[in-house]
Design goal:
Blueprint: H1 22-34, E1 47-50, E2 54-57, E3 62-65, H2 68-71, H3 80-92, H4 104-116, E4 123-128, H5 131-146, E5 150-154, H6 163-168, E6 186-189, H7 201-212, E7 217-222, H8 238-248, E8 252-256, E9 280-283, E10 294-299, H9 300-303, H10 319-334, H11 337-358, E11 362-368, E12 371-376, H12 386-398, E13 401-402, E14 404-406, E15 412-415, H13 423-439
The structure holds ligand PLZ.
Amino acid sequence: MVSGVPEQVPQQRRLLTEIPGPRSRELWARRERAIPKGVSTTLPVFVIRAGPGILEDVDGNRLIDFGSGISTTNAGNSAPLVVEAIWEQSALFTHTCFQVTPYAGYVEVCEHLNELTPGDHEKRSFLVNSGAEAIENVVKVARYATGRPGIVAFDHGFHGRTLLTMTLTGKEMPYKHGFGPFAPEVHRAPYSYPFRGTGRLADTIAVLETSVGAESIAAVLVEPIAGEGGVVVPEAGWLTGLASWCRERGILFVADEVQTGFGRTGDWFACEHEGVVPDLVATAKSLGGGLPIGGVTGRAEVMDSVHPGGLGGTFGGNPVSCAATLAVIRTIETEGLIERARVIGEAMLPRLRKLSATVPAVGEVRGRGAMVGIEFVRDDGITPDREITGRVLHRCHQAGLLVLTAGTYGNVIRLLPPLVISDELLEEGLAILEQAVTAA
Ligand code: PLZ
């Protein structure tokens, strides 16, 4: 192991000050002067150390992490193999640009992506810097390969913040508000949302057939579970039905596995749950274990259709990010983290579902593996309740548990613990959450 690496933060929750504490408040004041408010923050505590299940702040508080940096540290924050790989690679070289002089790490990451993503057909991959950039590129490839312009995205979908990916995103505030005009040839269809009774397969297909027109569609882009949209798990058969509708019409079925990928849902990719084999897959987040990297993986004939020089970028597949990625994959494999995600789900879901029986404001508890959402509603059992969601969030944060919100209506508490979190911390976090829900 490399020398000079700080000790791992002790795996116990600890509150020394109020949340946020005085040092965090000081930094927050500086932040307000230096950074626009358009860049927002879920919990304004400033972190100095993190991993595997704890975030330590500048005031010495230790919070339980049920956020994983939005599903980015599935294999743990500063996971030992990842730290070592980053250290070694950064001492060898930090950059050449793969399009100038290549290196093996990039090839190895692509070989793994080709192997791990659903389907045993021949595949190709290339690397970019982020989830949004991966989505931008699946769109480029899909348009090129099909010669068609249209891209279908869904209600409750999130795909990024660039012009094209913001256009593909379904939620107006805060993602699109005031940022138009938007990119052309993007069409929206209903996403399956069983709790709200919307987006049944027949309705979705009817919209595609009647208001878009199959022959103009290059790709249907879908999150297998809508993360930012509120951990919405589509009705069984919806994804498979959509994928076969696409196949019959020469439309590419594209999975955005940016948030759901790399073990989060108890499979390498969430599409596997229903045996769906996408033509193209976008990855990012947990791929790099915290270093920026995104992947585009697809059928060889689709990916190879693009002319030489049509794809790339200066930093895509940076050697340090590639080294981190290879270490993330090794960590997931050696620590059995796919199975661990299932175990976490089995600990979380039934326990939280009990709350929906006793607390009327809990409309639904849903998810898969270590990706769980709690949707809050008013007395009528369906109107979104954003206020109570905010109160639960605040109570959790005050008690030293980091949870996230999500949802088109802002009424979902989202839980994405790192897959390496200990049973004790998981248990303690759930107890805090139950108390917060009951009290709120
Ligand atoms: N696709 C499914 O979840 C990023 C967004 C955080 P980038 N989700 C977190 C924020 O508020 O901007 C995401 C996603 C899905 C694409 C993306 C975009 O990934 O790496 O943030 O560009």
